[in-house]
Amino acid sequence: MTIIHNLGFPRIGAGRELKFALESYWKGESSRAALETQGAVLRQRHWQQQAGLDLVPVGDFSFYDQVLDMSFTLGHLPERVRGFHGDALDNYFRVARGRSAASTDEHHGCCGGVAAGEMTKWFDTNYHYIVPEFDAGTVFALDASRLLGQLAEARREGVKAKPVIIGPVTYLALGKTRDDSDKLALLPALLDVYAQLLETLAAQGVEWVQVDEPLLVTELDQDWQHAFNFAYHQLKACRVKLLVASYFGPLQENRYLAANLPVAGLHVDATHGQEDILSLLNLLPDHKVLSLGVINGRNIWKTDLNAVLDWLEPVAARLGGQLWLAPSCSLLHVPVDLEGEQKLDADIRSWLAFALQKLDELQVLAEALRGGRTAVREALAANAAALAARRASPRVTNPAVQAAVAAIDAGLGARRSSHGVRSAAQAALLQLPAYPTTTIGSFPQTAEIRQARSAFRAGTLAHADYNAAMRAEIARSVREQEALGLDVLVHGEAERNDMVEYFGEQLEGYAFSQSGWVQSYGSRCVKPPILFGDISRPRAMTVEWIAYAQSLTAKPMKGMLTGPVTILNWSFVRDDQPRALSCRQLALAIRAEVLDLERAGVRVIQIDEAALREGLPLRRSEWKACLDWAVDAFRIAANGVRDETQIHTHMCYAEFNDIIAAIAAMDADVITIETSRSNMELLDAFDDFKYPNEIGPGVYDIHSPNIPSQEQIVGLMRKAAERIPAGRLWVNPDCGLKTRQWAEVLPALGNMVAAARTLRAGL
Ligand code: GLN
Ligand code: ZN
């Protein structure tokens, strides 16, 4: 009998109940007991929704982050928060979110201020975890209370519980050392605590424990391979059965290592082609359970169940009771339930599966394996019909777009002249001073803007009135920028809810869910638009707004667009064509917009690629191929303009060193980047040889309400000028200002403009 199970369930709640409970608790508007109750309600509901499974994950629920949960379980907290008084859950939030020294809670006197834990992306997903911090003196001490509590709760509910923990090797790999010591030296001590944890679970009568080791799908050097062998040999004696779970990609060269770890079971992501799986079968010891992740836990599409059965049936015949089935990874990365979606187009809806629908699919597969396909004839037929309808739908396929993509040639992505020639033409046209000042695009999204937008969406504000309100905001931001004396202005993005959704809504080939929320970190969720068909641009998207803004000033107004790679990376994308192809279609749509802006007299156009780096594969050996098509897409979007039209791009991540050649190949005239927190050291990556064009290193951190002084900015720019010739430098903030208040923005930009004047005087 094939066992079916799940690796993890979205914990935020179909109605984002956890988000609202957390935020209300943090604001002091509700009690800790109310928050704990909401957590229990969600766990109970989610277990019930998974009741059809043979094994249900327990311990996957988290009030903030599963990695931080693991740090607490391992008794391993940063020095700066150890010994805090007060409630454990409050301290947990303190580690996650930080606490200001000025906090007025009852422990402000004794427990002081604390910086928030550093966050980073969980493998190649859009989920962010809190980075464990190590040093040579790190010690661990088991605190199994959270896990045992959830386990006891699950048992009371009659749940067939399979506790889930992050594996020791992945946990170590995710953390950072503060003192350059060797993380792997901590492994033996860490394993002692894992052994105690597993023993504790065994004492509770637990049979299986899922140990997440997604590190197994990345490139491992010998030390880390050895760490895997060492770790699981050390844990071999434990009395529970371990299911080591790998996900987010195929095992590839780690197949042998994974297959031969001395554990009772292995879970693998089976959505990346069968070849990886079939060769794994030959390596797997007879006694070992193989759990195949056959339902994609990262996308929102229905699975082709018949196609899966075609290759799964022989595997099942071979493995018998040793075969388990599951989604490829935790369902944390998809929305909970399609049922709530009433506004989605019925056709598109019939092609989709969210978490609960994915578990239904799993059920159908298991029944087909147990009783033959006839046992689930109707479900399989309905699935096949939906997929056939999707394949044949004229909404998916647009021959004109396909023809345009087929006609792309190498020349399309190239500027007419080299940067040297262009920059002279641009200088003549734009007449900018040295150290030109600009901002990244957005100005504060005020309460009035939000209200106008939601009234417009609700139908209580007429289109013309909404437009008038947005124009008034644009006019305000232009006035403020002129008064500040900025050189290249922006319109402020008042009309944009979000830098991807705004474009998705205007492009053909995109659909939007009402409540397809996915947790990004803590209480923060995103609702990625759904890219379902060939992308086209029925009409200009931004030209009216930018032309209006330009009409208010003689200074150059930047056209403001989101780039194809970023739109792609922040969407749910198609599974019926390569990402690279979807990206090219997006590139053509953005290109048309760029050319329309140029035709409307816009002299500077910024194309944001905030997420360029995010889309990179987990394996470095695959980076080049990915960067090639990503850069290509940007070039197609941007480079159709005349020499005198200045193209800007903006990126807000922190590591450029290893992708600098790709960034240079994009050939934007100006790049603005987030640098202020790195004290300009980041610019080392951009030396003349590697990066010949102009650069605006961010001079202040827009995430913080602090107002930078003129001296600070001058100091940072002088540092920048040690690395980049002054003639190529721009002065700008780190990123857009939409989350700030005008009261913060005006003095900050005032100081920035004054700093630029000081720098010019000193030239
Ligand atoms: N133009 C966008 C803004 O200013 C850029 C945001 C981003 O890089 N994340 O808000
Ligand atoms: Zn940014």
From TrEMBL:
List its EC numbers: 2.1.1.14
Positions annotated to bind 5-methyltetrahydropteroyltri-L-glutamate: 16-19, 121, 524-525, 570, 614
Tell me the route in metabolism or biology where this protein functions: Amino-acid biosynthesis; L-methionine biosynthesis via de novo pathway; L-methionine from L-homocysteine (MetE route): step 1/1
Cofactor notes: Binds 1 zinc ion per subunit.
Question: Is Metal-binding given among the entry's keywords?
Answer: yes
Keywords assigned:
Amino-acid biosynthesis, Metal-binding, Methionine biosynthesis, Methyltransferase, Repeat, Transferase, Zinc
List required co-factors: Zn(2+)
UniProt protein name: 5-methyltetrahydropteroyltriglutamate--homocysteine methyltransferase
Species per Swiss-Prot/TrEMBL record:
Massilia suwonensis
